[in-house]
Design a protein that fits this description.
Length: 587
């Protein structure tokens, strides 16, 4: 009886201790176990979301007007300008793969964000100089046929410096924000599910201000003033980030996740001739979770890799990591391999999204943008409709749909992550069909009256549908890649999500090149010198067809996908493994 009472007291003490302190391998700014009440949670994550707002304001202030700047100031033709934007966007969204790796393996998320924000700020300052310093301006007067070569060089160097800054900023900041919540604390875990929705809200608020206020300044005041504003905003965000240092929870860098995966492959090859044990329970595993790594349960599939966890007394006495891996490390490699089909089948969705920052904006420039006699909407400001659609979707989804779906399905998220992504992909098909119909109408009007007689708000439906689709698919992709990667690869997980958009931009450029070459051989290219001599409606129909066919493949892949199988930190017995919140893939 006394023993039972002692056990109850110990359990109550442990529960109280875990309510007061955070035992998820994170530390506070002095390297101590964090106090739950004064670190992390919404207090820290809202500071981080505010920084994301500032960065997205700067990025979209540049990105959405880039095609206008390239055609009007640098005098590139439509096809070249679209490719230049796609290449820059592609590099910008693929650089996070490098930034995420550096954050997870070497610098940690906080210092990676700090360093990359400084690089980002340097790019903005250089961009400002290209518009302000007389010798770096496009030309000596307001109108010029050909920009100075030095301006072109400095301009492209500046925007690619911003790409490098974004490469470290994006994956590290978002994963750093999600790190502020403890997965094994019920209240914080539920808050973490809402974090990605509110992250997207801050993201979209920055986009909305960037494509309205900043674009208006670019269009009606000057590019130089807009660049000065963006530089000041980024400098302010850097100060805010540093001020919040004492409120954050940090993750210590332990080892390179890439090295761990290579070790598993090498160990599996060395033991390829060993027989499988009669039960997975005989595979090697540590007695408790390692720092920054929760234990994963064994799953079926990719059984060759399981051989890395077979304990052989003849060679594994010293437990060399190049000869013996734990079940958890094997399962981490399986997680990454199983993500590849999902990554590949989301690329067509990314190609559709790429059109909203290139051809959609250029379409806006050809239409009637007058609101009143004295006010005309800047072409890039139409992107605000997409941001509004995404903000509305995120709020409705988080506050209305999730509670309703949670009661209906019993899933804590409402619907599975992959189902959410699938809904967004369906909407991307719809956006391309609507865009094609509107473009065909615009071309018909051009032949009769000229496209300037057609209101720019004919483009509103395609922008809104893209925004609503992003509220499902983009937020779902963020959550999927953060949640399903190994715990030691959280920054790389966000980088994987961003790489979908980056690779899709390169594929969009490649597709434009192929379609241009093929249709030109057929008589007339779909991409002329300007929009009125092009057939974008055919291109949009092609994208809708590709994405629709790919959607069927995605459903097959998603239905066979197995979610991360995690063992609770509070459980010592491997048999008590539990599957993630999403036990079923797409039903």
């Amino acid at each position: 009886m006394n023993v039972e009472m002692d056990d109850i007291k110990i359990n109550k003490t442990t529960e109280f201790d875990e309510q007061k302190w955070v035992y998820d391998s994170s530390v506070d700014y002095k390297g101590r176990v964090p106090l739950r009440a004064s670190t992390g949670g919404w207090k820290a994550s809202f500071l981080i979301i505010a920084i994301e707002f500032s960065e997205r304001l700067s990025y979209f202030g540049i990105a959405t007007s880039l095609i206008i700047y390239l055609t009007k100031v640098i005098h590139q033709d439509l096809k070249t300008a679209a490719k230049s934007v796609n290449y820059w966007t592609g590099v910008t969204t693929l650089m996070p793969l490098l930034g995420g790796f550096v954050a997870d393996a070497y610098l940690g998320r906080f210092y990676t964000v700090l360093a990359s924000t400084i690089v980002y700020l340097l790019g903005l300052v250089l961009l400002t100089m290209s518009s302000v310093v007389p010798s770096l301006k496009p030309c000596g007067n307001d109108l010029c046929e050909e920009p100075r070569q030095v301006h072109v060089v400095v301009f492209f160097f500046a925007i690619y410096l911003i790409s490098i800054g974004t490469g470290g900023h994006k994956p590290s900041l978002e994963s750093f924000g999600a790190d502020q919540f403890d997965d094994d604390h019920p209240q914080e875990k539920r808050k973490k599910m809402s974090f990605f929705n509110w992250w997207s809200f801050g993201f979209c608020a920055g986009v909305l201000l960037g494509v309205t206020l900043i674009v208006y300044v670019q269009d009606h005041v000057s590019w130089a003033v807009a660049d000065v504003i963006l530089s000041l905003v980024m400098a302010t965000s850097l100060i805010i980030f540093c001020v919040g240092r004492r409120f954050y929870r940090y993750r210590k860098v332990t080892e390179s996740p890439l090295t761990t995966m290579i070790q598993v492959v090498v160990a599996a090859i060395k033991k390829r001739n060993l027989a499988y044990p009669s039960s997975p329970a005989y595979l090697h595993e540590t007695q408790k979770s390692e720092t920054n790594r929760r234990r994963l349960c064994h799953t079926k599939g990719l059984e060759f890799l399981d051989k890395a966890a077979i304990f052989d007394e003849a060679i594994d006495e010293k437990q060399n990591p190049w000869e013996l891996a734990t079940v958890t490390k094997v399962e981490e490699l399986k997680l990454v391999i199983n993500m590849i089909p999902i990554w590949l089948t989301t690329l067509p969705f990314g190609i559709c999204i790429a059109q909203s920052s290139t051809f959609f904006i250029k379409q806006s420039a050809t239409l009637n943008r007058k609101i009143t006699r004295d006010f005309m909407i800047p072409p890039a400001s139409m992107y605000a409709l997409g941001a509004i659609g995404m903000i509305a979707t995120v709020i409705v989804y988080d506050k209305i749909l999730v509670p309703l779906l949670r009661r209906a399905t019993g899933n804590e998220r409402g619907i599975s992550i992959l189902q959410r992504i699938g809904i967004g992909m369906i909407l991307s098909v719809a956006s391309m069909i609507v865009a094609a119909l509107v473009e065909r109408k615009r071309l018909n009007i051009v032949q009769v009256k000229g496209s300037i007689s057609m209101s720019v708000f004919w483009l509103a439906p395609q922008f809104l549908i893209v925004g609503i689709g992003d509220g499902f698919a983009l937020v779902g992709l963020q959550e999927y890649f953060y949640d399903q990667v190994p715990d030691t690869m959280r920054s790389l997980g966000i980088a994987f999500y961003l790489s979908v958009i980056g690779a899709a931009n390169f594929l969009s450029s490649l597709l434009i090149t192929i379609v241009d070459h093929v249709t030109e051989k057929g008589g007339k290219s779909w991409f002329g010198k300007d929009l009125n001599s092009s057939r974008l409606d055919y291109f949009y129909y092609l994208l809708a067809t590709i994405t629709a066919v790919n959607l069927f493949i995605y459903v097959v892949v998603a239905r066979s996908y197995s979610y991360k199988n995690v063992q609770s930190r509070r459980t010592a017995d491997v048999a008590n493994c539990y599957e993630g919140d999403d036990r079923q893939a797409m039903a």
